[in-house]
Structure formats: structure tokens, C-alpha cells
């Protein structure tokens, strides 16, 4: 196995153990504390050996902020707002990375589609969002949507590996929508399975967008 394969296996193993920590599975919170950050660290290790220049740097910044968000959300109540801010910054870092390859909103239709998606998510969530969190939640829904839309712009511009990047953006929006639904609308069955699987798949896709080094 090469380095990427080892790190892929590590991400899968650590992610599976973190998911299995949930009450509907092994009900072992310590697994989440130990392996959730390790799964994201494995993705960071994968991205570290790929790409070059400012694009690579901004993707790594996004992954590091994601790791900070993962750690904050180990405490779901106390860490929710810090985690929200960390992931907001992660999405902004990814957005900057993507604009190094394609001009921001160069394909307006991509942004129209994700604006409709974001509006639908907010419309569903709004009744359950506490007043003090409404502005942060609006900002958080808008940022992933903009990130995913710009990922689609990169793809539509026929950039190398643009398809995997667009998939990563879409998976991130799906993961965030599932997380928000579970928190503000109704508890989802086996929520961590769907939220974390789409989350790490999204991060792996974004890291994979970075080209292999010679």
C-alpha cells in the first residue's frame, strides 16, 4: 500500500470507530473523543502530500479549521458556536482556494442552484432555530453553499479533477444540512452515521482535488 492508501484506510478506520461511539451503536463516548480528530488528521496528512502553492495552502487552512471544529463539537452544547465559527472559517478558506483556479461566480447558474438549496434549508430550519443563533446559522448556511457553488464553477470550467471537487462541495452541504436537521428540526435515526460519513467523504474529495506531486 502506498501513502495515500494507508491514509485512506486510517480515515475509514478512525471514522468508523468515531461513528460507532454513538448511543445507537457501541455507546462509548471515548471512541468519539479519540478517533474523530484522528480521522480528520488522516485527511490532513493526505492533503499535505498533494498540490502546491496557494491552492494547497488554503485547502490545508480549511482542513485545520475543520479539525478545530471537530474538536469543539466533541462538546455538542458548549462547543456548538465555536464549532460553527471554525467551520465557517474552513468554508471561507476553501472558497479562497477555489477562486485561485476559477474566477468567483464565473458560472452564475451554479450560484443560483445553491442559493435555492440554501433557501430551502433555511426555510425548513427556521422555526426551530433559537433567536440568538439565527444570524450565525444564516451565515453558516450561506458560506457552505457559496463554497459548493464555487466548487461547481471549477468543475464547469473543466479544471483537472473538478468533478471530484464539485462532489466534495455537494457532500459538505448535505452533511451540514443533516447536522442542522438533527439539531434544529427532528432527531435523525443513526444521525452520526449519515452526518460524519458525508462529512469525511467531502473532506477527502476536496483533498483529492489537489494534484499529485511529481
Please tell me the total number of domains.
Answer: 1
Mean pLDDT: 95
Order of helices and strands: HHHHHHHH
Number of helices: 8
- Structural class estimated from helices and strands: mainly alpha
Q: Cα-atom Rg, whole angstroms? A: 17 Å
Terminus-to-terminus distance: 18 Å
Helix-residue proportion:
over 70%
Regions with little confidence, pLDDT below 50 for 5+ residues:
none
Largest sheet: none
Count of DSSP strands: 0
**What is the chains' assembly state?**
single chain
Shape: globular
In short:
The chain has helices spanning 3-20, 29-48, 53-72, 80-99, 108-125, 134-156, 162-184, 191-209. The chain has one domain. 75% of the residues lie in helices and 0% in strands.
Characterize the structure shown.
- It is a single chain.
- With about 210 residues, the protein is mainly alpha-helical.
- It has one domain (about 5-210).
- The protein has helices at about 5-20, 30-50, 55-70, 80-100, 110-125, 135-155, 160-185, 190-210.
- The radius of gyration is 17 Å and the shape is globular.
Task: Looking at this protein, list some descriptive labels.
single chain; 214 residues; mainly alpha; 75% helix
Question: What's the SSE blueprint?
Answer:
Elements (H helix, E strand, L loop, with lengths): L2 H18 L8 H20 L4 H20 L7 H20 L8 H18 L8 H23 L5 H23 L6 H19 L5
Helix pairs in contact: 1-2, 1-8, 2-3, 2-8, 3-4, 4-6, 5-6, 6-7, 7-8
Amino acid at each position: 500500500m502506498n501513502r495515500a492508501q494507508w491514509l485512506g484506510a486510517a480515515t475509514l478506520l478512525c471514522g468508523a470507530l468515531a461513528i460507532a461511539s454513538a448511543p445507537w451503536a457501541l455507546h462509548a463516548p471515548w471512541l468519539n473523543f479519540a478517533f474523530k480528530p484522528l480521522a480528520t488528521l488522516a485527511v490532513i496528512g493526505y492533503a499535505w502530500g498533494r498540490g502546491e502553492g496557494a491552492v494547497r495552502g488554503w485547502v490545508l487552512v480549511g482542513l485545520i479549521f475543520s479539525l478545530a471544529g471537530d474538536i469543539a463539537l466533541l462538546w455538542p452544547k458548549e462547543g456548538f458556536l465555536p464549532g460553527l465559527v471554525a467551520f465557517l472559517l474552513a468554508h471561507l478558506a476553501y472558497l479562497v482556494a477555489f477562486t485561485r483556479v476559477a474566477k468567483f461566480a464565473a458560472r452564475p447558474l451554479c450560484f443560483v442552484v445553491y442559493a435555492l438549496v440554501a433557501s430551502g434549508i433555511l426555510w425548513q430550519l427556521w422555526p426551530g432555530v433559537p433567536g440568538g443563533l439565527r444570524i450565525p446559522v444564516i451565515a453558516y448556511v450561506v458560506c457552505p453553499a457559496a463554497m459548493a457553488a464555487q466548487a461547481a464553477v471549477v468543475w464547469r470550467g473543466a479544471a483537472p479533477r473538478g468533478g471530484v471537487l464539485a462532489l466534495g462541495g455537494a457532500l459538505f452541504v448535505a452533511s451540514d444540512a443533516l447536522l442542522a436537521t438533527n439539531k434544529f428540526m427532528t432527531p435523525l435515526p443513526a444521525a452520526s452515521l449519515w452526518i460524519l460519513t458525508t462529512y469525511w467523504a467531502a473532506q477527502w474529495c476536496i483533498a483529492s482535488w489537489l494534484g499529485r506531486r511529481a
